[in-house]
Amino acid sequence: MKLHGLIKRLEPVTQKLSGRLPLCPWSSIISQLDPRTLAAYPPPLKIEIVSGEGPLRKLRFGDMHDAWFPGDAAITPEMWSEYLAVFWNHPKNAHYYLRHTPVKSGDVCVDCGACEGFFVFQALEAGAAKIICVEPSAIMAQCLTRTFEREIADARVVVRSAALGAINGTARFNFDSLHPFGGSVGRQSGHAETVEVLTLERLLAEMPVPRIDFLKMDIEGAEIQAIEGALAVLKRDHPRLAITTYHRSFDFTALRALLVAAGYRHIKPTGIVEGGDGIYRPVMLHAWE
Prior knowledge:
about 30% helix, four-stranded mixed β-sheet, Rossmann fold, single chain, globular
């Protein structure tokens, strides 16, 4: 078993040396060999039902954070993994948004793909002055307004039910409340709904904020289009960025090119994952001016 685990860890190295991973940077490949991750295990699942009200129910994560979810959302290891992806600050968790790009006191943040609001908790705890939550699912936007009712009243949180994209318009959004973490724009299913699509520039024109300081983005493969629609804002404000790049094998390379064009001088990949197609890619991209 140990030998098999070592071979699996060396697999991206051998693929890179053979020329099969031209789009995956060496820094992500080497991170697979970090000795701190060899015997590291995440905290065990700890989710409890606090209360229910109509079609929603409140869940408590790790005795620390209460968040509203659709009443039929399944309590699964995936749900706990989504929570740990935000809060488990360990080298094995390459999805940790604040690894190289911290939220600072007084920041204005945009959470693109806010979903249940775990990152919103994190940004508030770091001292963010305002977080603009962008969430295309109508029921998850409703959950966010319940979870952050007090912060919305204090004007620290704004919830906008829409998707970010390259142009303004509408799109079909695939969402299943049983598994609320994998909603995606453009794919058709029996759970699809029509949602508004905005560029980041158009979104911020609605908001009374002079600039943004931090942009978090995890939108199931639509990151490239959203960054295309955000270029004017990125060139103007150069917010710190934490963007997922694991959905498609070319996401990191394409996003890096767009960010170079926007004037970013520091663009750092973290982690590595195989996407089910045999191709390894970075988990996340962090960027700052």
